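G., before I forget:
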Amino acid sequence: MAFIPSFSIVFESFRLAVGSLRANKLRTMLTLLGIVVGVTAVIAVVTIINGLDSTVADAFSAQGSTAFSVSKRPLVITSREDLIRFNKRKDVTDQDAEAIERLCDTCWRVGMSINGSSLVKFGENRAENVSVRGLSLEMFDIENVSLQAGRLWTEQEGRSGRAVCVIGTDIVENLFAGRSPFSVVGEEIRVDGVPFRITAVAEPFGKVLGFSRDNFVYVPFEVGQRMFGSRDSIVVHVQVRNSGLFETAKDEVRSIMRNRRKKSFSDTDDGFSIDSQDAFIGIYQNATSGIYFATIGVAVISLVVGGIVVMNIMLVSVTERTKEIGLRKAVGARQSDILLQFMIESVTVTMVGGAIGVFTGYGLAYLLSVVLGFPLLISPSSALLGVTVSFVVGMISGSYPAWRASRLSPIDAMRNE
Amino acid sequence: MENIDSNGSGLSHPYNSLIKMRGIWKTYQMGNEQLHALREVSFDVRRGEYLAIIGPSGSGKSTLMNLIGCLDTPTKGEYWINGEQVAKMSDDELARIRNKEIGFVFQTFNLLARATALHNVELPLIYAGIGSSERHDKAVDALNSVELGDRISHRPNELSGGQRQRVAIARALVNHPSILLADEPTGALDTHTSAEIMTLFEKLHEEGNTIIVVTHEAEVAERAHRVITIRDGEIEKDEKIR
């Protein structure tokens, strides 16, 4: 006989499933747990990574793919051997920057930075590990820094090495608790003990991956060079007018720099490194795909365990309800009707678990988004994924118990007292 | 046993012969031994009969009941119910026959504990694929016919033994089966309630239902109009008593 379940039977099965789930609340909850954990993990990870992707994309698209940097060491160093090798390279200097500016036709802006970190104090208030960067004025355009209060230092001030600075909003918060950005302009802070006058406060950049990007003090490049220059190489930053010129500019700069480093065609190492945002995005994607796969692994394991629990409980349920199955068969239930009944019951359990998992997953993602500060991007497709996954788990783990139930003979079933 | 096989072919089924069993064997394999629960059983039941099947335990009467009720198939032999040969049917075909032709009443009632009386009675209609409003009406009618119209939303644990058995009888009758098949229907009831149930059976018989009661209690069997006695897997006696 063809297997065409009537609506009555589907509805009856569903009613029954809900009834038996409600009759055994504790058991139902324990059964659901594995599925809930698995689906929560999937939903949370998908949502969090979506959110992170969008913040990272926003953060980096501020510069877009129009800027790159020339430095002694690349941004990403994967081994100790490489580190040693890169450290043997010549430092990048302001003469290199000057040469690039002079010789590179496609380069639009050329800036210099020198980076360090210092202890910053205002009176009794202190902030440790503040990023202190010496920047040439071009850097404010290249990095798209805007000021919310005060003014940038002048070229004259920069060249004469005046102790002036532009600070990030974290410094205002940490050292001048409760004061407005406007009121701190003109104050004097101490960077590694040296007094600097604040000329401006930058607009906040916000957080990326939970790390604030506003904990900085920018000083004129010449001043930065005095502070850190003896210790480290500078970084040259290049920006092109539009991303179409990006690769050309990179090639031009590479050949200029190779000339300066006197590298022949046979030298495999440039003697410097050219990096762009792509490198950041590459690291980021590597890191997140690692997290992605680890969590998917956890989710799969808990779904498998959850599925086994569901199957186990369904087998118990079939055994407990042997008499009921016998009766249903006696009054006319076909094998397919019983099969359907238990499949629906199993799928109902896992779908309820999946639905709870979707909500707890979003909840978890919401909490993390508040803590780490990235937008919550709820995608309906992840909910669909969670529900689909739990549906499939229900189908798989319900099939064997349901098959066993459907094969029960009504006589044996009713003899079971 | 007259007039059941008028043309002698063994394949005719006269209108008034509802059940027709011919040379039924049921054999169980117990290790190396064959156990014959039924040997060469043949009989007919006409529409509207009130039949009791009695016999000591181990006589084969439960096996016979399972075969009559299409819960099982014979090892050998032929069985027509309402003109359909059921001896060789598949599980699902048997389910259809049970749903359409047989109304079961069990010793232990076999009601669904979590379901209301109404829902218990609706059960055979669900598997018959009948829509919910028609189902509801029919179930209410059936409950009314056993005088439980005021208990439709009670659950089994809120009903007395006699009331539970009446719910089970309503369930058996709701799909208007050809046969009401009762297995020790008073086995779990006290004397007074038993009498009540037996009176109900008589009333149902008068209304034209065909009733087969399997029992080992003489008082229950005495209420029937015909008694078949089974012993060692064979029909020992088949007598009209009324």
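Chain A has two domains: 7-59+283-415, 90-271. The first helix of chain A runs from residue 7 to 23.

More on Monday.
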